[in-house]
Amino acid sequence: MQMSEKILQFLSEPARETPFLVLDLDLVVERYREVKNALxxxxxxxxxxxxxxxxxxxxxxxxxxxxxxxxxxxxxxxxRLGISADRMSYGHTIKKESDIAKAHAAGxxxxxxxxxxxxxxxxxxxxxxxxxxxxxxxxxxxxxPLSKKFGFQVEIAEDLLARAKNCGLQPHGISFHVxxxxxxxxxxxxxxxxxAALFRTLDRKGVSLELINLGGGLPARYLNDVPTTARYGDAxxxxxxxxxxxxMPQMIxxxxxxxxxxxxxxxxEVVLIAERHNGKAARWVYLDIGKFGGLPETIGEAIKYRxxxxxxxxxxxxxxxxxxxxxxxxxxxxxxxxxxPKDLQVGDRIEIQSAGAYTWSYAAxxxxxxxxxxxxxx
Length: 378
Ligand SMILES: *Cc1c(COP(=O)(O)O)cnc(C)c1O
Fold this sequence. Notes:
elongated; Lyase, Ornithine Decarboxylase, Chain A, domain 1; alpha/beta; TIM Barrel; 8-stranded mixed sheet; binds pyridoxal-5'-phosphate; 8-stranded parallel sheet
């Protein structure tokens, strides 16, 4: 995958101070339309946390997107940009009761929960709201699983949704997240099957649900190739028809990474190249961006970015890639060293591709005095 003309043009202009993220808004809109094409009957709720830039939120709003917010500041940003509360869901399952009250006061009436205590908070602070319950998934096939911290087993979800009315809430639906950077489109099937079974069980108990929230998980293109958006669309709709038959609920999808990941490129500079013999001989390449500067998804080397340099094409050397800070854990790739050009030089500018998601929003405020990552939306 090549960089877009707009990004190439931007990078060819007189050098800006690195590191920075440049994000091509056209690519975000293009991907949004691709998702809508692949899944025309689904309402898209962009997961704002992936990249909350005003320009992105505004462009997606103009395309008709809704928004999944995870905090009051995210909600307030959407409000400031003119997005009405009926186009937002508060999909985070860990909320302060005071924040629930603020969201409710602002008009949001669609909330997630995945614990009894959270349901009770919602009942007190957002009475009458529509709520959906998050199921746990295995996270298989995902490079960034979300399988421990969130979600219920089906039996508990059933019990709580059956009791939601007693808390003064409208039991509205089921959600799940198959894991972020989900590289296997078939992973939706098992979760959709569970959700459909739960719809039927609750229907027999007189609780009729209306919504299935299919979560996020659409991938960006990192080092390994990923299936096309159309294949995700096919797999998801095949599973929906198989398990829901003629009783199709309202469907929503909450892509974050999949909409913005491929639209951004980080340009960084090589600060130091050193041969070290600490345990094993290796070439260490230090960049001016690391785990604290916007690349924490390299934790466990989970997300493997594609990296390009001006000297690509010749001989390469496996290199350990590290960030610039004084912190020992600020190493990006050590167990899977990156083949980087043998003649790479200190001062070279390199590109970290598909870095539009979970970078700018993750960057530290001032560790080692380094300012947060700059973003240029073009
Ligand atoms: C983070 C998150 C998303 C977005 O996930 P991606 O894998 O980036 O698409 C969607 N829904 C919820 C509830 C989330 O927490």
